[in-house]
Design a protein that fits this description.
The structure holds two protein chains of two kinds. By secondary structure, chain A is of the alpha/beta class. Chain A is built from nine helices and 16 strands. In chain A, the strands form four sheets. An eight-stranded parallel barrel of chain A has the order 3-4-7-8-9-10-15-16, surrounded by six helices. Chain A has a four-stranded antiparallel β-sheet with strand order 5-6-14-11, with no helix packed on it. Chain A has a two-stranded antiparallel ribbon with strand order 1-2. Classes of the chains: A alpha/beta, B alpha/beta.
């Protein structure tokens, strides 16, 4: 049995396996399949200051080795979260992390401030990379100036562990990561989905209601891995890796590329119990290779 | 697995353990293994549960790569299923009288188990089943075991010519409740008809899903209560709630 504990800033994870925002609901949806307290962390769905209805259906298109989505941050707003959802999840004995999105730095900061007040939410993941909403989201994550404005505002309002989720839809992701680090982010997570498209050739129109969507699933893994490796070499803060992780093998690749922890997203849809299988698979691999700790393989490529 | 007409096959699944309790209208998320072009599970409604033989029946129309793969399975193949999912039909709405079950195409699937359970609880279900042509009418003999069966085909090759909503039965008899499943335009027409007749109506939707658990919010339908997940808050909805947009 190897030591799987890792730290992200002040946050202690019993193991490095977390769930990606938007793929695991509030955790409760998966409790029949996963003993939630055994996860390293659960990143709950994107939360905004005001309620959002999200985009019209169709919001999803399956593609070879992946899927596109354009959910568009449907959620009932941060106040609903605090009053109705937080009481249901606050006693789950793992790191319950809220993914926060917004359409202005002030929105982000206000939303983060309200979550700061929740005792049992030890961290937020700042989503500056949602490709599916017009008014914000990715707009802040594709330039250093945009990222700086949001992270600066939130850092003032939020005092616990701040993870910033980066967009892959950029020319140089390392520059954005360095900006987040400079503005006080405790960690970065990457990658959010890649902008993509699918067309219904019989109807001669895009499959998704807003024409484009975010691509996820095993098809994005090589891109995600490359970006995690680049960013891990560019910043000193921990990197949380995600993008197409389906099994322990994939996860170990991300650790070797420099990730301190990982998130599992789309794979939850194919196997709702996949997360702990990945944790067990990591453990097994470490044992087989004589590693005492997960730390021995983080950034361990030559 | 047996062909049942059109592009459809009936999969009869079993397990070493007793199958869990399933309600009519619930569905199963079936994993599709070994196909290069698919990734996600396929939601398939529960067609019938045979408790004596511990069998779950799934009626599958081979319309895309995933369902074509399912239709090509052979006896003894193993399927990974998550079940049961979704809410199911309201079994109390039928009262103790005469519910009408209107199905179209492969959408007749969940009505078989529903009809069987309604009969079990003392109702006399009537089935009104439509298809494009006679070879697309599915499992009529199975339906006849649980109630009267009326049929329409769009080409007039069997039963009355036209759509289910034009069937002469609707002008002649009164029903306590309507359950419907089929192509969306048909369900819209059925919902309108129910409204006109002053009869309560439930429809089962089949929006494209990813998680099947109410987590990803991909399969939403517009309702009077906002966007609701077809997988979790559905697939069955009171048609008064649906905006059909």
């Amino acid at each position: 049995m190897s030591n799987l504990q890792v730290n992200i800033g002040d946050l202690k994870l019993k193991n490095p396996v977390m769930t990606a925002s938007g793929t695991f609901g509030y955790g409760l949806e998966f409790q029949d399949f996963v003993p939630l307290h055994e996860l390293g962390g659960i990143i709950v769905k994107g939360t905004t200051l005001h309620p959002r209805e999200g985009n019209d259906y169709p919001r999803m298109a399956e593609t070879p080795g992946g899927m596109l989505n354009c959910v568009g941050l449907q959620n009932k707003g941060v106040d609903y979260f605090c009053q109705h959802i937080y009481p249901q999840i606050c006693d789950i004995d793992t790191n319950m992390i809220v993914n926060v999105s917004g359409s202005s730095p002030e929105d982000y900061a206000e939303c983060a401030a309200r979550i700061d007040a929740l005792e049992k939410i030890p961290a937020i993941e700042l989503n500056i990379s949602c490709p599916n909403v017009k008014d914000g989201g990715m707009a802040f994550g594709v330039t250093c100036a945009g990222a700086e404005s949001v992270v600066k505002a939130v850092r003032k309002a939020y005092h616990k562990t701040l993870i910033v989720k980066l967009s892959p839809n950029v020319t140089n992701i390392s520059d954005i990561a360095r900006t987040c680090e400079a503005e006080g982010a405790d960690a970065v997570s990457l990658i959010n989905t890649l902008m993509g498209m699918a067309i219904d050739i019989e109807k001669r129109r895009p499959v998704l209601s807003i024409k484009t969507g975010g691509l996820s699933g095993p098809c994005v893994k090589p891109v995600a891995l490359r970006m995690v490796w680049q960013v891990a070499n560019a910043v000193r803060i921990p990197v949380v890796g995600l993008g197409g992780i389906m099994n322990a093998h994939d996860a170990i690749e991300f650790f070797m590329a420099g990730a301190t922890a990982i998130e599992i997203g789309t794979a939850n849809f194919i196997d709702p119990a996949v997360t702990l299988k990945v944790r067990d698979g990591i453990n097994e691999w470490l044992d087989q290779h004589g590693c005492q700790s997960i730390q021995e393989i983080i950034g361990a490529i030559h | 697995m047996e062909p049942v007409g059109g592009r459809c096959v009936l999969l009869r699944l079993t397990d070493d353990k007793p199958l869990p309790e399933m309600c009519p209208g619930q569905f199963v998320e079936v994993r599709i293994d070994h196909t290069p072009s698919t990734l996600l599970r396929r939601p398939i409604s529960v067609c019938f549960v045979d408790r004596e033989s511990n069998e779950l029946w799934l009626l599958v129309a081979a319309v895309g790569d995933g369902t074509r793969h399912l239709a090509a399975l052979k006896a003894g193949d193993v399927l990974n299923c998550v079940l049961p999912l979704g809410n199911g039909w309201d079994m109390n709405s039928a009262g103790d009288s005469s519910p009408l079950l209107i199905g179209g195409g492969v959408g007749v699937a969940p009505l078989l188990y529903l009809g069987a359970e309604l009969k079990q609880q003392g109702c006399e279900p009537t089935f009104l089943l439509g298809a494009r042509t006679s070879s697309d009418l599915l499992m009529l003999d199975e339906f006849r075991r649980y109630g009267r069966v009326f049929v329409t085909t769009e080409d007039g090759s069997e039963g009355e010519h036209g759509f289910v909503t034009n069937h002469s039965l609707l002008g002649q008899e009164q029903f306590s409740h309507i359950y419907t499943c089929g192509p969306k335009p048909m369900m819209v027409a059925v919902a309108r008809l129910a409204d006109k007749l002053g009869v309560t109506c439930e429809a089962s939707l089949e929006n494209m899903m990813a998680c099947g658990l109410g987590a990803c919010l991909c399969c939403v339908e517009k309702t009077t209560e906002g966007n609701l997940c077809v997988c979790k808050e559905g697939p069955v909805f009171d048609t008064k709630k649906l905006l059909w947009s």
